[in-house]
Amino acid sequence: MAAPKRPYTIIVALALVIISLITFSLINFGSSEKTGLLKKTVLEIAAPLEDAANSAFTSIGLAWERYVLLVGLERENRELNAKITSLMIEVNNYREMSIEYVRLRKLMDIEDDSKNSTVVARVVGRNRLSVFKNGIDQQGNC
Fold first, then answer.
1. pLDDT per position as a tens digit, 109-140
2. Following CA atoms 53, 54, 55, 59 in sequence, which dihedral angle do they give, to the nearest 10 degrees?
């Protein structure tokens, strides 16, 4: 049963080829250009192949351009990441300075609750022979 279908498909395919050749020759019959039937057939067959090759080469060209652009962007990306890191360090330094500023402001606002007066002095001499611990400050007081 499979054998009889095969000759019919070959006959149908040949009939389609003949009809298309006749159609090609009738289409260009009225034109002033003298192009042979074989040349027209070859051009009709080659046109889709040429379009496929052109689209493939165009895609490869666009991919290459994107790759070249990405190579330059990779270097720029590294530079920008380094700059981001340095700016983050700077921001952290400013935050630490702000916290230190707040701490110093609180420290300066501390009021002295002691009833004794404080004097800033430096010990410049001491009597080593004495049993008592006496010292002499810069003003001569003991």
1. 766 566 776 666 666 666 666 655 555 565 65
2. 100
Sign, CA dihedral 30-33-34-39, equals negative
pLDDT value, residue 91: 95
Q: H-helix or E-strand containing 114?
A: none
Tokens read off for 130: 């004495």
Contact 130, 137 (CB under 8 A): no
Q: What is the DSSP letter of 91?
A: H
For the question of whether the overall pTM of this predicted structure is more than 0.90, the answer is no
- Helix 2-27 vs helix 37-108: crossing angle, to nearest 10: 90
Q: What percent of the chain has pLDDT over 90?
A: 16
Mention every residue, 6+ apart, whose C-beta is less than 8 A from residue 137.
121, 122, 123, 124
How many alpha carbons fall within 13 Å on the CB side of residue 106? 6
